[in-house]
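[step 3/7] fold_predict: job queued, chain A
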Amino acid sequence: MWRLYLFCLKNINKAPGLFHFVGSLLASIKYFLCPPDIRRIVRNIRLIRGRNYPIFKAFLLGHRVLVNFVHYWLDFIYLGRVAPHLLKESVEIEGRQYLDEALSLNKGVIIATAHFGNWEIAGFWLGENGYPIQAIALPHKDKKINEFFDSTRAMHNVRVIPTGRSTRCIGVLKEKGALAILGDWDFSGGKAVLDVDFFGRRVLFPSGVGVFAHRFKVPVVPLFGMIEAPGRYRLKAFPPISPEGKSASDILQAYVKALENVLRERPLQWYMFGEIRYAPEGINKNELCIVIPAYNEEKHIGSLLNKLAPTGYKVILVDDGSVDKTSEVASQYEFVILHRLSCNEGKGVAIKEGLAIAKKEGFKWAVLMDADGQHLPEDIPSFLSKAFSDVGMVCGNRMHNPEGMPLLRRLVNRIMSVIISLYTFDSIPDTQCGYRLIRLSAIDPDKLTSDRYEIETDIILRVREEGWEIVSTNITSVYHDTAVSYINPFRDTLRFIYFMCMDFLRRIARMLSGRRRDERDVGR
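[step 4/7] structure written:
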């Protein structure tokens, strides 16, 4: 890695445009070959643009994020080290008066920025124009690269405080200096976070900006460096956030609103490649029900309902036209809402009926379980523990320990899970598990088009299409000798293939019909 820095340092001055072109090409190739990057970038774009932003469109735009990151990195070397004399003509600032206003209070100031655009160029410009700052920075693992970064910053009057040196940060503020903080990335491992509203979602944000400003009563100036073109930048400062009469959460929320402003303007310049932590969401017992589709399960349904009785949850049991005594057994339990279909219409129809009843009854969450006793009620708390504010569904995962699962089903399940994970730009280890927790506001039963066993896939695609996160939790599955499977491997695999093909064509048609929308995103 250090050799790459040296190569760029020695040669970028000869043809900076060529370096940006080649770097952009390599960044695009890397994007399309790296599913984890795709998943995180698509997630971020849809977070900013809204839940209904087409997932394929986000995927196609996503490579620009890595391209912009390459521009950031190359301009750090070129403008920071090789041609610093070009810095003044390469940067313009909007809202400089806000920075002067905060400094005129003679209390010190926190300059709150983010991993957005080019925060290093913003620091260079400030240091060169009479605003010497001390910036908190995570040291690079490679000592030579770390020294290169710190020495380049020092050339522009930017002093570095390594993460974890809180006493030095306190010293800067006590001396009424300017402390720069990257406020969007949590380096504490979740130990120093506050719950804020971020694009309408409850997110655990790093608390540093709010805590320092509140404790030392210093104003916060949100300031961000936007890439206008390779080698051209616009700094945007916002009005100072006064700490007077505000809690640390209030101050942090005000900074987050400023961050939202620039992210809406330049959604492809946010380099948040880590996981976003969403706030946990408590689920009251009266907000959750259990939906069970059943077909000829008189041998197992009684045992399952006996195990569910102590949980206190309402059970919506949809009898899919059973010809045995399934409904008779279920009707004996007071906590069961029984709905019987006149004939066998398929698992998909039964689940859609059950979800529609759950929404009509006012429930906010539903646990889907199979009626054959394969799923253990003891695993319900595990599902609830994963119900964060942006989670639309928690899928059960049997594949962590698939012993007892028939070999053919195990193989088909793994193949389908890989296909669906790639298709949704997500990582779902067990897409065919019927045991799952669903946020009812994340799914419209009327939009589910499948009637048979492809319903599990249909639900996943609709939840992801609506912009919700899908997570997994390990469960234990029990395979009974008396249990009867109605899955036909050949027929149901063909149905799955047909369903996926039709969904793909539908998404392409939807994307093409909305081509005019957000075309200004391209290149930003």
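[step 5/7] annotate
The first helix runs from residue 2 to 11.
The CA atoms of residues 29 and 63 lie 8 Å apart.
exit 0
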